[in-house]
Design goal:
Bound molecules: zinc ion
CATH architecture of the largest domain: Alpha-Beta Barrel
CATH class of the largest domain: Alpha Beta
CATH topology of the largest domain: TIM Barrel
Largest sheet: 9 strands, parallel
Length: about 475
């Protein structure tokens, strides 16, 4: 079927970079783009009017964890002060006797909900770190039903984390746990790479630089090359990790990755905040930035997650200028890639103390071309003949946008997920007029709320304080 999108600001691609075509058109036939330009005279089966809108390549979210927002994300608010804002480590480990119900994968409600949520912010391709947890077949079926393009695989590590009853973190190391996890990830990749009509791309996701042994990381790279998949790892994501690796290996996490031959253009580093020279580290030695740039590895930065903790990358612009391929991820909640694009730009300006930093062009590139490069896909992140028909249409004709001159600047300064009007993946319209077409959103939200209540009710069963949610994360005001 041939579809023509007409009117609006079309983000075309000249083979090298994006360009804006005012009152442009995009034609696609099935799952491929046929034409991008000013006029299209040939007959079509369907027309989409995009006047007053931005017609953009679908966005790529390079760091996302599928699951309900009732669990870890709210507990981030309770990060312990003696953990130096070390995010998940402050809440991620249950007591030894209590299973962490908030961590349980929940294919039908939480994972489905979060994929629809990010899709509705205009994301047509998302990484889903560890998304295919236990029930791989059901997970892949669910992704197929949702319709999004997904780079997924189960995550694995050597360490199990636990809290003692006084809030100390305990690490249990287990070589077998790591190698079994890697094997399961390889099995997933072999079975599902290319599933969902080509929309599923398998990746290997070793957990973190401080939760995997160097041997497991080396085995990961070897396996990835053998089966032809890419790798993403959480790296330099918190101060605990930095100091654990420094103490154990006498080098920074990035220097360790270099030493064991882990880094190359097929690897992306999640977050990558605490590199040598970051102001929180008191470690102005070495040059982690140059190591990453020289290796060709990419960085998947999640600005909101860190802003919530009072932390910024120092800076998005410096990484980019060093030559590092940058992607942006939503990671925490809300999973709104348009807001995260804005946060990346603003945080870069604050870090550099310069309004010239964090240009709209560069953060837009990160959520399109940067993500595509991270996946090694030249048919994603751009609107060009032959590319995948993954298209996001954002309404810019709203009082919030006022007068529009440079639509990318307007997008960066103003747009949020609720301005996304249409989302097309592989030529299929999944969101139209701001509504997800494949299920009843109200019904899903009822299930999400019920699931949330269930998760919150269970906090005292696994949290080291043995207290309920209201004691662990007090509400903003007393609730009557
Ligand atoms: Zn993550």
């Amino acid at each position: 079927m041939k579809t023509l999108i007409q009117g609006g600001y079309v983000v075309g691609f000249d083979g090298n970079e994006h360009e804006i075509i005012k009152d442009g058109v995009v034609a696609f036939d099935g799952d491929r783009i046929d034409f991008v330009g000013k006029e299209y005279a040939r007959p079509v089966d369907k027309k989409i009017d995009a006047q007053g809108c931005l017609v953009s390549p679908g966005f790529i979210d390079t760091h996302f964890h599928s699951g309900i927002n009732a669990s870890d994300y709210i507990l981030n608010d309770s990060t312990k002060t003696d953990f130096f804002a070390s995010n998940y480590l402050a809440h991620g480990g249950p007591t030894r006797e209590g299973a962490h119900s908030a961590h349980l994968k929940d294919v039908d409600i939480g994972q489905r909900y979060s994929l629809i949520h990010v899709l509705k912010s205009g994301v047509t391709t998302t990484f889903d770190i560890g998304g295919a947890g236990g029930e791989t077949e059901r997970y892949v079926d669910m992704v197929d039903q949702v319709g999004i393009r997904c780079a997924a695989g189960p995550s694995y590590k050597n360490v199990s984390f636990f809290h003692d009853r006084e809030g100390r973190l305990e690490y249990d190391w287990d070589d077998e746990r790591g190698s079994k996890g890697l094997k399961a990830a390889i099995d997933f990749a072999k079975k599902y790479n290319g599933a969902c009509n080509g929309r599923m791309t398998a990746l290997l996701f070793p957990g973190h630089v401080d939760s995997c042994t160097p041997a497991l990381l080396k085995d990961t790279r070897k396996a990835a090359k053998e089966i032809g998949v890419r790798v993403q790892i959480h790296a330099t994501i918190n101060l605990f990790e930095f100091h654990t690796v420094m103490q154990r290996e006498r080098c920074t996490p990035i220097e360790l990755l270099k030493k064991i031959g882990f880094l190359d253009p097929e690897v992306s580093l999640s977050h990558c905040i605490f590199i040598s020279g970051h102001s929180w580290l008191a470690y102005p030695y070495g040059d982690d930035l140059k190591i990453i740039a020289d290796s060709g590895a990419s960085v998947a930065y999640s600005p909101l997650k860190y802003l919530k903790l009072g932390i910024v990358m120092e800076s998005f612009d410096k990484y980019r200028q060093a030559g590092i391929n940058m992607g942006i991820g939503t990671d925490t909640f809300p999973k709104d890639i348009l807001s995260d694009m804005r946060y990346a730009a603003i945080a870069s300006r604050v870090a550099d103390k310069s309004f010239l930093s964090g240009h709209p062009r560069d953060v837009f590139n990160a959520i399109t071309l940067g993500g595509a490069k991270m996946l090694g896909r030249e048919d994603l992140g751009r609107l060009q003949k032959g590319a995948k028909a993954d298209i996001t249409i954002v309404n810019l004709r709203d009082i919030a946008f006022g007068a529009v001159r440079d639509p990318i600047r307007s997008l960066m300064e103003t747009a949020v997920s609720r301005d996304v009007r249409t989302v097309i993946v592989d030529g299929e319209t999944l969101v139209d007029n701001g509504k997800y077409l494949r299920l009843d959103e109200a019904e899903l939200l009822n299930k999400v709320q019920a699931k949330g209540e269930q998760v919150w009710d269970s906090v005292s069963k696994w949290h080291w304080t043995a207290k309920g949610i209201d004691a662990v994360v007090p509400p903003s005001f007393r609730m009557k």
